[in-house]
Amino acid sequence: MPDENTGRPDTRTSKTLHNGIEVLELLGRHPHGLSVTEIAERIGVHRTVAHRLVRTLEEHRLCRRDAFKRITPGPGLIALAESVESDLRGVALPVLTELAESQEATAHLIVPEGEDEARALMVVEPSRARVHLAFRPGRVDPLDQGSAGLALLSAMPPRPGERAEVALARERGYAVSHGEVTNAVTGVSAPVVRSNGAPVASIGVSVLDPQDPARHGEAVRAAARRIAARLP
């Protein structure tokens, strides 16, 4: 891995470990799997090197092969992730569950991932709704698309060229989007902001046929305040 200042390889880091982490990040973006050849091409190594990396990750259950020999994320990643953001998970789960039931819609907690992406940390589906959206935690989307990312941006300082929807979300306390992340689905989300003003997450619902987005907006705003008040 090159040093940011000199451009030369950084001898303080492990290239093999760096490549292994690149494989895991790549699989996180392609949950339906990649072949060893595709992995090699995308991280820029020989196929033999990619094969060794995959075999090592398989031994630690961090990836696995499906029936078509495509490499997918492994169950060992779940165990590693359990302790990450555990306080936020514990505080948010009962609030998410109540939100999903009261709104009869899938509720989600989204966290910022770097400067330009947002990751689904938790997803709770309603138990009584006849129809609802289903998606898995771990999904990563652009920060400037979808209500969850727009809500996070609304709690951050304005950025040059930001969308008008972000300013509107700042004004009313929640963001609304339609069909930006998933076709025909409306998202309504509000930012969860710590006492120091920093956004830690957004909480929202994904609605297939919204009758009153403002009602969902008030619900997600209230849920966001409840989570923020309980954070350590």
TrEMBL record:
SUPFAM superfamilies: GAF domain-like, Winged helix' DNA-binding domain
InterPro entries for this protein: GAF-like_dom_sf, HTH_MetabolicPath_Reg, Tscrpt_reg_IclR_C, Tscrpt_reg_IclR_N, WH-like_DNA-bd_sf, WH_DNA-bd_sf
Positions of the IclR-ED domain: 76-232
One Gene Ontology biological process: negative regulation of DNA-templated transcription
GO molecular function terms noted in the UniProt entry: DNA binding; DNA-binding transcription factor activity
Keywords noted in UniProt: DNA-binding, Transcription, Transcription regulation
SMART domains for this protein: HTH_ICLR
Domain annotation HTH iclR-type: ranges: 14-75
Superkingdom: Bacteria
Protein name in UniProt: DNA-binding transcriptional regulator, IclR family
Organism: Nocardiopsis flavescens
